[in-house]
Amino acid sequence: MHAAAVTGAIARAGLALIAITSGATAVAADASACYGAYYTHVDVLQAAPNHVIVSASALGTGYVTRDDKSPLKGAYGPCVLFNEVIDGKPNGELRCVRSDADGDKFLIVGKVKAYSPTGAMTGSYTISGLTGKWVGAKGGGNFSEDAGSGKDNKHYFVCFDGSYDMKR
After folding, report:
1. What is the pTM of this model?
2. Which of 2, 58, 89, 133 is deepest in the core (most CB within 10 A)?
3. What is the per-residue pLDDT across 75-110, written as a single tens digit (0 to 9) for each?
4. What is the pLDDT of residues 27-83, one digit of tens each?
5. Residues 148, 119: contact at Cβ < 8 Å?
């Protein structure tokens, strides 16, 4: 992904703020983040003409943020997706475990709300801390995925907005 495309994708993601809480002191930071990823496994089951079931695994290659000090910067890790689409309406969820630069982990749980005509997903997500500095972190927002690209159509780009609280 070219730097201009990454910058444009972050700009399209919109500006969001994070409230990082330490005692009674709160510090605002830019929470817009995008990451590149690729599907490592996809199974599609055509149950009926109007009914498709998809299971997929992917690997995120690292968050890109506007704020170089953001704890999201560079976080990466695997995702799994299960989605059932009936009459064009998705009913799917994804789970992503992300590791930051220090090896501390957080969980992204996403709910697929819609697909664009090109096959890109949109939806909402929650974030919760798992280990280290992320323990106690909670929040959420929306995500938007570009449709698959590349010669194998397995690479994609996801942008997030929203907010979360993180104890320090």
Report:
1. 0.76
2. 58
3. 899 999 999 999 989 999 999 999 999 999 999 999
4. 334 456 787 888 889 899 999 999 999 999 988 888 877 777 888 888 899 999 999
5. yes
Residue whose token pair is 């704890």: 71
The SS3 of residue 157 is strand
Task: Tell which residue, 79, 80, 125, 121, has the closest CA to residue 99.
Answer: 79
Taken in order 123, 34, 66, 107, the sign of the CA dihedral is: positive
Distance, in Å, from the CA atom of 107 to the CA atom of 141, rounded to the nearest integer, reads 14
Query: What does R_g of the chain's alpha carbons equal in angstroms?
Result: 16
Tokens matching residue 156: 């994609």
